Amino acid sequence: MRTSWKIAAITLFALSLLLGGFFGDRLLALDKEAREQLHLFTELLTVAQEAYGGEVTYRDLVVSSIDGMVRTLDPHTSFLTADAYSGMRDRQQSSFYGLGILVGMRNGQLTVITPIDGTPAWRLGIRAGDVIAAIEDEPTEMMNINEAVRRLKGPKGTEVRITIVRPGLEEPFDLTVVRDEIPQNTVRYAYMLTPTVGYMAISDFNRGTGVEVEETLAELEEQGMESLLLDLRGNGGGLLDQAIAVVELFVPKGSKIVETRGRTRESFQEYAAHDGNQLSELPLVVLVGENTASAAEILAGAIQDHDIGLIVGNPTWGKGLVQTVYTLSYGAGLALTTAKYYTPSGRLIQRDYSSWFDYATHSNGTQVGVDDEDLGEDEGVAVQAFLTDLGREVYGGGGITPDVKVESAEVSSFAQFLLSRNALFDFAVEWANDHPIEDEDWEPPAELLNRFSAWLAENELATDEEIAAGLEDVETQDFVRRRIHAEIFNSAFGLESRHQVLAQGDPQIQEALSLFGQATELLAKRQRLEDEEERAETDDGRRAAVGVGN
Known about the structure:
Layout: H1 5-18, H2 24-27, H3 32-51, H4 58-71, E1 78-80, H5 82-92, E2 95-98, E3 101-106, E4 109-115, H6 120-123, E5 131-135, E6 138-139, H7 145-152, E7 159-165, E8 173-178, E9 180-183, E10 187-192, E11 197-202, H8 209-222, E12 227-231, H9 240-247, E13 256-262, E14 269-272, E15 284-288, H10 295-305, E16 310-313, E17 321-327, E18 333-342, H11 356-361, E19 385-387, E20 393-395, E21 404-405, H12 413-420, H13 423-434, H14 448-458, H15 464-470, H16 474-493, H17 495-503, H18 507-513, H19 516-549
Parallel strand pairs: 11-12, 12-15, 15-16, 16-21
Antiparallel strand pairs: 1-18, 2-9, 3-4, 5-6, 5-7, 7-8, 10-11, 13-14, 13-18, 17-18, 19-20
């Protein structure tokens, strides 16, 4: 979508006000009409600031103007305040300094989800379910999660005092934690699903992802991995170079990974694998979902287009806009869309966003081929097919469509109620405190469900009749039992043990395990194609040599 020249001119002026003259020299070069419109905007700012019926600052007005401008461009261009820009850069780093805990709001309380092994919090014995009631004597009940996390982070070696309320203890207690470097692992889980199938989930792509994935794969191979299930569900993307580093582990050397196209000459870029074939004999299944986006879609698209592995799950988000981040004055930033991503076969990843409501709610998931390569045009045309290396048809303009669609599990209304009240987590924490377990072969006892029903009634979360009706069907019983089992394991052994329990009831993971036969067949066809290409190159070389000799 194109923004008018008036909006563009106003934006330059607004940014110059906010960013200390960042565009000042460029403003002098604007034509007379543009300067007149900028003068109109300055009058608007002055009148609004001086005569508005409430308190308002120039900064408030300018930032609002900028926010309004970027919303006219596309869903992913964004102005970043100093705090937002700093947070984005922190997320892209491979480590930060803090306590080493995953926290979340549970019933309005800042609650420890799990401590990270080897970190200061872990060494001090902080547990899942602990409530951080205060940070440096300031109550956390009025803090949002971002403010609380900001207060817990700090320079390496500095101290922070927190007040802990622990289930089972009558009185809160204080702990002084020395901040240390905390790795931000993007390989969230990695373990052997079966004696021969390795599982790896990548949460996003930061500066350490490429090395982290390579090291994790080597560890899984040492444990006997002969096939890999790569989980990209929920992966919203991240750094392009790190996604490319992961793709290079799977595709043949020299293979195209992704292409960018935009309006300027610099926006046309093609990225190919410098290395390749490191894992060419590893049958691969990739799990994707509607929250798989951006760099994760580049990874899935390259694997699908080159017929390296089988894509399974739900269609991905369809976020194929390239953001170039510009550092501005006063610590601010601008993430500006400058190009679009295309997979190796030439299909556009970006989904149509002419209706922002449909785009945000994922209501327009139908794939559309887009011929217009102008960054500013998003006119949908007839569905356009593209071909993978083996000649399979794939389609562009709507994310990555799986080779095999598998729906995620449906959760009953009563189970959703229990999750919304954190009942399963809270009950599991209490159970783990009262019944410590040390063996990962532990299974929930038969009376667990009855005890949970009684706990719900004791805590007045539901009536006996509501509990009986809610737990009537077998699927809900299985869900509740498995989730409590998982949360108990989280409390005792950590997040990865929790995930292994949940994986046993995950229909997409279980279906993926049954598809490695197809993945092996696809890999064999891919290998035959490479052999044929190699023989053709050899024959061409021999013919050329004979011709030269004559």
